[in-house]
Amino acid sequence: RTMEQAYYTFRQPKSLHELRALLELRYSVYKESRLTSFIAENSLQLDLDCYDLNAMHFGLFRCSNEVEEPVGYMRLVTDRPQSSASDIIFIASEDGPMLQRVLQTPAVPFPVMTYAPAADRIDRLHRELQQRGEQIVEPGRFSLDESARGRLIATHMVAATFAVTIANGIDSALLSCTARHGWMYTHFGFSVF
Questions:
Q1: Cα(142)–Cα(122) distance, integer angstroms
Q2: How far apart are CA 35 and CA 153, in angstroms?
Q3: Are the C-beta atoms of residues 171 and 125 closer than 8 Å to each other?
């Protein structure tokens, strides 16, 4: 039998096992990065926080020879609980402190509002959008396994994130990134806030 060429697919996890694998990937990528301070040490080696209950979780899977391997992760944080919330609670329940962290009520609707200098402007924008019946998300926790890193795959993953945002009826997205990664988002029509 000949080797099948690998391809990538971006989708929500199909099982609790896949969700857990994506959260493990997210943890390991952040622990190895300069953003390690975002991640709480824990025995499960998972990255979970109070925003994960309100998030849609997506993975980038490398597919080859009928095997799908998670190599990327992105979450879309909303301002309301999502269908994966019970799975997140189940996973977090294996570690008491993690479960407490996950079950905390977020102080603000979106993670960026905890550290952005323009948090008050973001809050006003969020309230205006809510009053108009529009939905806003914050993409975050972008993670790519070292084996899949590269400008082409990263751009594909960001484009796929925007596509699923549109497909899910989301009106606006709010994200933060380093100046070094700004090219990827301005390419898709984002502007500095």
A1: 21
A2: 21
A3: no
